[in-house]
Amino acid sequence: MKIERLLTRLVGDFSEFKFEPSEVARWSPTARIVFYTDEAAKLLHELGHALLDHADFAQDVELLHLERDAWEKARELAPRYGVKISDEVIEIALDDYREWLHARSLCPKCGQTGIQKREDLIYYCINCDARWTANDARTCGLKRRLIKSRPRI
């Protein structure tokens, strides 16, 4: 289905949301806008976030759950709108997030994979005892910032 026809139907069926063209498909929960590109599958995926009322996530690993759920919602909507969403499209999208999350978890000091603790959302390296935070970086360059170590007692 051409994106224009799909969009016309979605605007009529989901008037509670705004739809705006963009270079990057995304859902803005505060503005309640589905930003879309010319890819029907991604448009339905972002609409999935909207319908599931996805707003934010605390721990990085929660993002994968939100992404998977939005793809499942898109897959549920797809037949109604004549859109085909292959398993490959979904896995490629999820792999992008997995790679991004992995890069965030790499220790900037020694390169080993760290863990993010729920209590403070800071990454910890079990190899060298470093602590760091990472910027959002989904649409820009990843930056990890070391946190000054606390003195050991």
First-last Cα distance: 64 Å
Please report which band the strand proportion falls in: under 5%, 5-15%, 15-25%, 25-35%, 35-45% or over 45%. Answer: 15-25%
- Determine Rg (CA atoms, Å): 19 Å
**Can you give the mean pLDDT?**
91
State the shape: elongated
Number of strands: 7
Major sheet size, sense and barrel closure = 4 strands, antiparallel
- SSE order: HEEEHHHEEEE
Low-confidence stretches: none
Q: Treating each run of at least 4 consecutive H or I residues as one helix, how many helices?
A: 4
How would you classify the helix and strand content by structural class? alpha+beta
Spatially, the strands of the biggest sheet line up as 4-5-6-7
Overall helicity: 25-40%
Folded structure, characterized:
There is one protein chain. The protein has 153 residues and is of the alpha+beta class. Helix content is 39%, strand content 15%. It has 4 helices and 7 strands, in the order αβββαααββββ. The protein has helices at residues 3-13, 40-51, 60-77, 87-105; strands at 18-21, 26-28, 33-36, 115-116, 123-124, 131-134, 144-147. A hairpin with a 4-residue loop joins strand 2 and strand 3. The N and C termini lie far apart (64 Å). The model has no long low-confidence stretch (mean pLDDT 91).
